[in-house]
Protein: Short-chain dehydrogenase/reductase SDR
Amino acid sequence: MTQTILIVGASRGLGLGLVAEHLKRGFDVIATVRKTGDEPALKALPGSDRLTIHHLDVTSDADIARLAAALPDPIDVVFINAGISGPKSVVAATADELNAAMQANVFGPIRLAHALADRVREQTGVLALMSSIMGSIAENTSGGMEVYRATKTAQNSFARSLWLGSPRARGVTVLSVHPGWVKTDMGGAGADIDVDTSVSGIADQLKAHAGSHAHRFIDYSGREIAW
Structure:
């Protein structure tokens, strides 16, 4: 049976890479982008005949409702990849900048996750969110990027509360995934790994954790990250 994955935030970087990787693995892929101009790179991928594209801004309740109503049921994997780096300093940032970071990195993705949680396949389904090792309080030994760190910490906390609701009752696994330090627009050219390495590892972890009935904070290689 062909499996279906929804990848939110798929226009470039890791999102685009996750679409390419899952098409290669034979999935039917549903991908979201924010605007029509983001579609060509997706449509050019091998296997794009198994690709469906929707438009979504995760900070829009209307967009979330529209997407949820349009999706097939059930979905085997939902991967929510959305976020911005935000301001570097909580002191120097404006209130609007801080709010934008929280909306894009925390409230939007988590509200979307709640809207889709009951659409994920019971017992073997996986609902994953793109987190970051920078959201780990225990592993923060350098400081810096304090707003981004806090948004990912908050997202992890909301993900745990989400899992403790209907996903746990329905046997759905929730993952908070650190992709590694990746050579993307956000990660920069000096990062440790390329997109292909990250997305291949993430896809392996989505498969490996199906049916584990837990909420875990892991990286692309499967390493457990301290909260």
Notes: The two ends are 36 Å apart (CA to CA). Strands lie at 4-8, 28-33, 51-55, 77-80, 126-130, 173-178, 215-219. The longest strand covers residues 28-33. The chain has one domain: 4-219.
